[in-house]
Write a structure and sequence with these properties.
12% strand; 47% helix; single chain; 2 domains; disordered N terminus; elongated
Length: 238
Amino acid sequence: MLKANIINCFRGGGHPYNLLRSGLEGVFMLIKGKYGFWRKSAFTLAEVLITLGILGVVIAITLPLLMQSYKRYEYSAKIKKFYSEYSQAVLQAEVEYGSALYWERDASDARIVNERILPKLKYLQALQNISGGFLEVRFENGSKVVFATGNCIDMIFDANGNRKPNQYGIDRWDFLMCFNETSRKQFFGHPKKFFGPHRHYESREKALEGCKTNAQNCAGILELDNWEFKKDYPYHLR
């Protein structure tokens, strides 16, 4: 019964919670006994060991799936929150400083972020001139974003802060602020988009392939999927 339940759950692409329930139902049927609801005689040592062994197998199978399911939910919420609040910060800055499409960069890029964006964000701590960038902003939910200078201003969002593995597509996603039309067309596919994922794709199929080819582009598929991690997302979150 237990074996059949587990196989059927996998064949149906079952949720890990359903797999765990299916396994426990199998254990219940095992100890229920052939005659009556509960057998009157005590369990033998062999029966106890078999039951514990089956429970161990069920837990070993389902626990990683449960953890990955939770991690996807957690990271999705953090990325969605960051993207929404940063977009709002840009809009608020535009009210004060004019359209971001006409903002001019300086040598360090720090002035625009520190003067125009940072005051509009809710954050826990801001560290200047850090390794790998000119600014690191930490948030209360444990995530952070590092600002670095490139063709555009790179914003490397890390969902679990300083904890490892610190790899694109796994716990890091790249966003950009682009100041010239050429860069905006290159990365966003639109001359009037100022802030967004590192790469824009015309279709989900191309976005998924782009994520597989270069993990730095994975924010593109998340944008199309409303910042959720679908079943075919190609990386295991950590």
